[in-house]
Amino acid sequence: MRFIKLSVTALSAALIIFAIAAIPKRICFNGGYNYVFYCGTSSADCKVVRADGNAKLTRLFLNDVCGEGAEFKELNIENFLLSLGGEIVFSESAAGITNYYCKANLPYSVEIDGEKINLHIAVCEGSVKVGTPIIFGGY
After folding, report:
1. Is the pTM of this model over 0.85?
2. Is 98 exposed, middle or buried (0-12, 13-18, 19+ CB in 10 A)?
């Protein structure tokens, strides 16, 4: 009987520790598909980790996350920016893609042309990709 009580106590403690450790590991974007995490210490050593199926669960098991990204079939940029407390700093268009570089309430950032940027939105025909601090890899 003592062994069962000790086992239940140990299991309960492990679950509480896991829950506390997992709480801060939220994802930045909800509702997107093809969710990715950028892991490493900078863009130079960035490794892209795809979250197959469940981004929140994948996030729990990653270390050194330095950014995130998601793809949307369509996205109302104005409402999206409002939901993140964001604003467009500058934009550029090339090859049928419009890129918006923004400031928002997100945990990752880079400096571009002297501006702190932590949200990148790339709009092309048929999809919208978002990334924080920017979209790494292709879009």
Report:
1. no
2. middle
At 92 the pLDDT is 95
Q: Tell me if 50 sits within 8 A of 36, measured CB to CB.
A: yes
Which of 33, 101, 28 minimizes the C-alpha distance to 67?
28
- Residue 58 phi/psi, 5° resolution? -60, -40
Helical segments of 1-139, H only: 2-22, 55-60, 77-83
The dihedrals phi and psi of 102, each to the nearest 5 degrees, come to -130, 165
Q: What are 44-96's pLDDT values in tens digits?
A: 778 899 998 889 989 988 988 999 999 999 999 999 999 999 999 999 999 99
pLDDT tops 90 at residue 16: no
Q: What is the per-residue pLDDT for 25?
A: 57
SS3 of 16, please?
helix
The C-alpha atoms of residue 98 and residue 19 are separated, in whole angstroms, by 40
Question: For the chain, how long is the longest CA-to-CA vector?
Answer: 70
Q: Residues of 29-48 as b/e, b for ≥16 C-beta within 10 angstroms?
A: beebeebbbbbeeeeeebee
